[in-house]
Amino acid sequence: MNTLDSILIQNLRKKQVFSRADIFDVLKKEQGQISEALANYKLQCFLNKGYIVRVGRNKYRTTKGEITVYSHKYSEISLDIAGMITNNHPLLDFRVFELAQLNEFVNHLIAHNVLFISIEGDYGSFIFQSLKERYPGKVLLYPDQTVYHNYVSDDSIVITRLVSESPRGLKENWNTRPEKFLVDLISDKWLTEAVNHGEYERIFEECFQKYAIDETTMFRYARRRSAEKRLIEYIQNETTIKLRTV
Length: 246
Prior knowledge:
Elements: H1 3-12, H2 20-31, H3 36-49, E1 52-56, E2 59-62, H4 76-88, E3 94-98, E4 114-119, H5 124-134, E5 139-141, H6 145-151, E6 156-161, H7 178-187, H8 191-194, H9 200-210, H10 215-224, H11 228-238
Parallel strand pairs: 4-6, 5-6
Antiparallel strand pairs: 1-2, 3-4
């Protein structure tokens, strides 16, 4: 980090949360009159370098080295499925979530990985036809909870419908971010059964402690799932997380 960037970050660090306007003011104080384009460029540079992270709509915070952008190393089967869907249906919107993503946060590791492939609209049946040939006996299409519990096994592939406003991944659109899976833990009928509720507090707190959570994106998705009130109440009553946008 060069000297000027270091000074700018130190000034921003005095604020717990700041906006684009705050960044602009700090830049003007240190560099004199500057253009809005230059201020936006500097903001993007800080984001790209990880000096600051987005935590809501026009809300940012400095990282101090302990907050990073979430990333998950997907299993080979997840990468294979995502690649197949992308290659055969390049315009199709979908997400891939695997239970193994939660092992980073839980006390008791999830031994059996299950993949949830959320597909937009009614295209799930088309994907099902392709996947059942590639992974015979492993794919479940829109199962109810009874079918899920009776037939799910290690590396099962569960096809569900993608809820609108589902956050897109930052690296690949199909990646599942915490802003999505935290909401799904509260509202998704399969995840609420698949994950021990005793692990929820740790999952939420570890996510917020380690990663930059865009609360605006998370709550927008929660509203679409009619889960915003439940999500806020859980975070405020069951965790030590201090929300920044509520």
